Amino acid sequence: MGPTNIALVKLFRADQQLRAAQQRLDSTTRSVRIQERRVNDTAEKLRSAQQRLREQQSQAAQLELDLKSRDEHIEKLRRQQQDTRSNREYQAFLVEINTAKVDRGKVEDQTIKAMEAVEQEQAHVKELQTMLETEQAKLADLKQEISGKTTELQADVERLQPMRDEAASAVSVKARHLFERLSERYEGEAMAALAKPNSRREEYVCTACNMSLVPDIYNRLHARDEPVLCPSCQRLLYIPADLPVETAVHVKKTPKPRGQAESTSGVQAET
Ligand SMILES: [Zn+2]
In principle, which of 18, 104, 128, 155 could form an S-S bond with 160, CB 3.0–4.6 Å? Predict the structure, then answer.
């Protein structure tokens, strides 16, 4: 292959190594990321519960104030009732007091309900606080557990990154852009090797999509210095190390004389 394709294959290998290292790092830190999400979710639930609790507490406090002022009002009516000398006024106060008592009863029911809600929410907040502490402790444990491993894998990534960068800088800008675009699209599988399924036939397939390629494809990759795409999957094609020109290209066989079976004895005449 020409220098362009050789550089592309080197970039492809360096890119795959880096991606594999990155993947190892990601899968090791995944459990921590999942736990971090759990901690954040629980903290969020706790914040909402605390907010609800504050609202319910203020509502209950207002109802209690309301109840207190109603008690005072009823007390005042009672005193006025005691002070009156007229029976009609006395009866009128009685009606007013009874109405006030009925209304007070309704407010008292609301207050009891509001206080029950406060109690429930307080228990909920407490439960969430405990849960949050548990999840935070789990997170700390997980971080501790993988810290050595993560450092090692991070070092791998940092070691492979400059190698990948160097391999990339050896490829022409145009071919590099093509590679990066394909690498993005195929998650690192930007290139595909040629394969020759039948050693006796000059036929090639793309090992990524298994589609047949024109016989000329080998020569184009071998002799010319240009990126060649698989017409079917659009990946960059390359000649793998196990397909050197001796194995790949059809060696012209001597034509067999008509009607004669193939012979290995070498009696056929060379043309
Ligand atoms: Zn293909």
Answer: 18
